[in-house]
Amino acid sequence: MKQSILFLILSVSIQFSFAQKNFVVNVNEKGAKIQPDMYGVFFEDINFGADGGLYAELIKNRSFEFDQPFVGWLPFGDITIKNEEPCFERNPHYVQLHEKGLRRGTGLENSGFRGIGLKKNAEYNFSVYARSNEGNEKKFRIELVGSNEDIIGRSELFIEGKDWKKYTVSVRSGATDPKAKIRLVLETQGIVDLDHISMFPAETWKNRENGLRKDLVEALYDLKPGVFRFPGGCIIEGNTLETRYQWKNSVGPVENRPLNENRWNYTFKHRFFPDYYQTYGLGFYEFFLLSEDLGAEPLPVVSCGLACQYESEECVAVADLEPYIQDAVDLIEFANGPVDSKWGKLRAEMGHAEPFDLKYLAIGNEQWGEGYVERLIPFMKAIQSKYPEIKIIGTSGPAPDGEHFDYLWPKMKELKVDLVDEHYYRSPEWFLENADRYDSYDRSGPRVFAGEYAAHPESRDNNVEGAIAEAAFMTGLERNADIVHLATYAPLFAHVDAWQWKPDMIWFDNLSVVRTPNYYVQQMYAQNSGTNILFVKYEGKNITGQDGLYASSSYDAASSEVIVKVVNASPGNQVINIQLDGLTSSIQDKHVDIITLHSYDLEAVNTLKNPDNIVPTKTFVRADSDGFELNALANAFYVCKIKIQK
Ligand code: AHR
Questions:
Q1: Which CATH code for domain 73-201?
Q2: Predicted structure pTM score
Q3: How many angstroms is it from 226 CA to the middle of ligand 1?
Q4: Whole-angstrom distance, CA of residue 111 vs CA of residue 335
Q5: Distance (Å, whole) CA 161 – CA 95
Q6: What spacing in Å lies between the alpha carbon of 455 and ligand 1's midpoint?
């Protein structure tokens, strides 16, 4: 804090200390096309991103399949775990309640994912599969219990018959509470079996059953992402091959999708999450549907037969890769195949007869070494022979330089993958120093997918320092949009009470969302990308950090706008004269729209209590005949939009 006050004093005292700069945008020379899907999002179930996050299920361990089957539950009375004659073959465990009429009650409570978030007057859809051992009618009391133990919602459920059946009932919450719980009490004497005990808010994104949290999807929607990479990250690799993400386990009826452990459960000893599993309730069908809702190109990642190389040396022999390759090929059929194909039929049965129009497929995540290359080859062969139109994404390893990177990039060129995935989690200084990273990249090889990146300040907070560094770096992505085709910040989501990794783009608790300064940087790029690169220069050179300034420019054919992005990452305000060179018609209304993200305090963040501390603001400046002046504050990112008369 002291540091930031010092910064504030320093920044104010050296206001406008540099001489005025002249930036020249050549509006005549339209450069390469900017991919319409360039700026996107990368989703991984880390930090309770899926279960406990985007996936709106409120009950943890709903199928009693966790290794310790009562995790998440507080059972009371006579209650046991069973698996004889189960309701669901692939999730066979269920719970048996025996109420002996001793008036103490038999039942169980579930405390959700660090509590259940309830909103006053909102409806919740409770459901359960049940059977009555004696066949007679049995009554359940269902209660929503606030964090102060008050009952804030109640309902009743009657079940009967000796066969498994699904029962549903709606419960209204009388209060708002981010950390409530649910209690079920069997009131009738006898034995009852229960499985897949579930509760969703009635209001989900598009009010779908098995739906997604509306506020979190809205945050994604507002980003206008062009591409949606899923489902990981390291979780596609698994800690072991057995626990890798297998997409076929994540489709079909939700109750029968087998549980998997989450790769992030024990990864960091100081952030230990033994209760972190994947239900796959948010599975590949839901990911494709969400991509479609967001207007983003789906970009799935599949296991290449190597378990996470940080965690294990387990791998499938190249000669035994066939089932893995088949999974990849079948995935394309699931996404794009006709409804009479095996996997296309399943997609149609799940509700989407139309293909999802999958264009990209990534093979492996952060793999390295020869082992990756020799596995990638047969994957490419199989995919290209059946689906030559699919763009294949290979990896360059876990870092943006070094041994693995230097080995893999030439190999990716040799193999002619379409795109190479690069990952960089580095300091803000690295981002500032690497804004010219792609200026000298080879234009003849594969294109670049910046598949995971984030500036990591010392505090690891989502602060202004990181956001401004990312904005500066991204001018380099935009200037090189001929070679950089896709870019996705990472990770996307984090639950404030259950994160393993930070910084993250969007934070949330059980009821609210925080959009970080980094989020707004992504949004400002995605919403103002333009259709073609324009070149902006300072003294004839790309603007890559001279006096802490960075810039890129584009033209948007649909709106006839010249867009200039400027980052002042220096601690002093600076005056910049931006001249549009080669204008053949005038600037409409002599008006320039300006969107600004700025704070003098590099450590400033958005929080649950103060989510709008750092948000973009809109203003405008007057232009003269061929340019305008920008008073660029310290630590600021600007998007300037100039409409050119037709
Ligand atoms: O984004 C978090 C993790 O970082 C991803 O799972 C992995 O690919 C990278 O190491």
A1: 2.60.120.260
A2: 0.96
A3: 20
A4: 36
A5: 17
A6: 14
